[in-house]
Design a protein that fits this description.
This protein has 153 residues and is α+β, with helices and mostly antiparallel strands. The chain has helices spanning 3-20, 62-73, 80-102, and strands at residues 25-27, 31-32, 42-50, 52-60, 106-108, 112-115, 130-136, 139-149. A hairpin with a 1-residue loop joins strand 3 (42-50) and strand 4 (52-60).
């Protein structure tokens, strides 16, 4: 993955938060993941196939997802399942919007949602994995992207 492709992901996240929440989002400096993946309370993972192969992951704390879900669906008493689903929706929206740039050969899977911070989790993100901190309001979450060219066009 090159710098221009990484920029597409960053721009999609900035646009998402501006459109959905009306609030600015600060994107931290992308860095290459070393060691284990950073995992927070809830993680959404989308597999990528086609011209690119690998995955996209968003991880966030429960309160972050609660605040985001409240903006989207209102303050009508969100249940735990709706809050957990929010990380999958966020990951899916980011990957789907990035697909507009990469085209129809950028195929995305259904999001896998994980809770907690399992020690034995093996992610199928293709190295190098780029991690981008996302600061929204008082919250921090992380976007991780690990893609490689697959040779399929």
């Amino acid at each position: 993955m090159n710098e221009n492709e990484l920029r597409v992901f960053i721009d999609v996240v900035i646009d998402y938060f501006r459109e959905i929440t009306g609030d600015p989002v600060e994107m931290g400096v992308p860095h290459v993941q070393e060691g284990r993946a950073t995992l927070l309370d809830h993680t959404g993972l989308i597999g990528i196939s086609g011209a690119k192969r690998g995955g996209v992951m968003v991880t966030a704390e429960t309160e972050t997802l609660r605040d985001l879900a409240t903006i989207i669906v209102g303050d009508g008493g969100l249940d735990d399942e709706e809050i957990v689903d929010m990380v999958g929706e966020l990951t899916n929206t980011i990957a789907g919007n990035v697909r507009r740039h990469f085209g129809t050969s950028f195929m995305i899977s259904v999001p896998i949602i994980m809770q907690g911070r399992p020690d034995d989790l093996r992610l199928r993100l293709k190295p190098p994995v780029f991690v981008v901190p996302i600061d929204w309001r008082t919250h921090r979450m992380y976007l991780s992207i690990g893609l490689e060219d697959s040779g399929v066009s």
